[in-house]
Design brief:
By secondary structure, the chain is α/β, with parallel strands linked by helices. It has a domain at 3-182 and 220-249 and 302-317: NAD(P)-binding Rossmann-like Domain (Rossmann fold, 3-Layer(aba) Sandwich). It has 13 helices and 11 strands. It has helices at 11-22, 36-45, 69-74, 94-113, 138-148, 150-169, 196-204, 224-237, 255-266, 277-282, 285-288, 306-315, 322-335; strands spanning 3-6, 27-31, 53-57, 80-83, 120-124, 173-178, 180-182, 210-212, 221-223, 242-247, 273-275. The strands form 3 sheets. The chain has a 7-stranded parallel β-sheet with strand order 3-2-1-4-5-6-10, with helices on both faces. The protein has a two-stranded parallel sheet with strand order 7-9. The two termini are 35 Å apart.
Length: 344
């Protein structure tokens, strides 16, 4: 078995499985119980090769990934392990988020380190995780959960703990941290409707009278198919024991320009007012329509993408023009009524 993809039925996971199969690589796709059929149906609809796919049932919140003895044996010779499994939702409790995004990351690392032929673990993180201390001091973890919310804090805690554990296990590790992942660069196909998609939904419905943040607020995006190709190439090109890549399109307009581009395309009026994020935090959510956990993503920060750009050049990967990708994604979001109905 060439690769194991954990979280294979997620938004990014299914595109990675499709990319690996298209490249002719045998793939074991790990899904939650009862979800394998949904994945195989989606792959078939997207023209995936019929052979080369094995499905297994896994639960990263359990030691040894909850694999049956038979599935564990089938995966004995796996080379590349991709951990895309996580709990991505706002409003999580700390135990819920930590079980998947912290404990799960460590369970995957320990299991992967036990594969005799493993080449690399590729772990999907997030572009706002940043350079937290390794390991993360308990006081810092408490602060993150208090200020960021359970989802982002658990991803930061898991990232730090994984970077501390992998060298102890002798496990080569690549941490790939994408920005806001949007639709397919050609078809616009979405499949995920949190974060920036929520703001586009409000814009389309005329419920975005003011834009949170400043004129320099930067919410970078990356097309899901580019990210899938990048992930597929990572084990072939990373050689260091620890590699870290922040993957985004640096040509993404700053948030006011991004929203203006989409408003013009959708034929709606863009918001004329901007409201500082600090003020939005103090206003009732019923008035702003903004989930408090999303506000930390509205930042003027810029991100170091040098290592990702080097790998992309080595692998021959180019990104489609971001304005075109945004327009196609917006069209698809509208066609799907922002996840409230499937597209025709």
């Amino acid at each position: 078995m060439s690769a194991l993809v954990l979280g294979a039925n997620g938004f990014i996971g299914r595109w990675l499985v499709l990319e690996l199969l298209t490249q002719g690589r045998p793939v074991a796709a790990a899904t939650r119980p009862g979800r394998a059929a949904a994945l195989t149906d989606w792959l078939s609809a997207h023209g995936a090769p019929a052979d080369g796919l094995t499905t297994v049932t896994a639960d990263i919140t359990r030691p040894d990934l909850g694999l049956s003895p038979a599935d564990d044996e089938r995966l004995a010779d796996v080379r590349d392990v991709y951990n895309l499994a996580a709990l991505y939702r706002f409003g999580l409790t700390r135990p819920e988020a930590r079980a998947a995004n912290h404990d799960g990351a460590l369970h995957v690392a320990r299991w992967a380190a036990g594969r005799p032929g493993v080449r690399r673990l590729v772990h999907l993180s997030g572009y706002r995780v940043g350079d937290r201390p390794v390991p993360l001091p308990p006081a810092e973890a408490e602060r993150l959960y208090r200020t960021l919310g359970a989802y982002e804090a658990s991803k930061s805690e898991g990232d730090s703990a994984l970077r501390a554990l992998a060298p102890q296990l002798g496990l080569p590790l690549s941490v790939v941290s994408p920005s806001a992942v949007i639709g397919h660069s050609v078809t616009g196909e979405a499949g995920q409707y949190l974060g920036l998609a929520t703001m586009v939904d409000q814009l389309h419905q005329g419920r975005l009278p003011a834009l949170p943040g400043s004129r320099r607020t930067f919410v970078p995006v990356v097309a899901v198919d580019h990210l899938a190709r990048f992930l597929a190439a990572t084990p072939e090109h990373d050689r260091d024991p620890l590699a870290r890549h922040t993957v985004l399109d640096p040509a993404t307009p700053e948030l006011p320009g991004l929203i203006h581009l989409l408003a013009t395309h959708l034929g709606v009026r863009p918001p004329r007012l901007r409201v500082p994020v600090g003020l939005v935090r103090r206003l009732p959510q019923s008035l702003t329509g903004a989930d408090p956990e999303t506000l930390s993503f509205l930042s003027e920060d810029r991100y170091d993408t040098a290592s990702a750009e080097r790998l992309a050049r080595a692998a021959g990967l180019d990104q489609a023009p971001v304005a075109d990708v945004l327009r196609r994604w917006a069209d698809r979001l509208v066609a799907e009524d922002f996840g409230r109905r499937p597209a025709a």
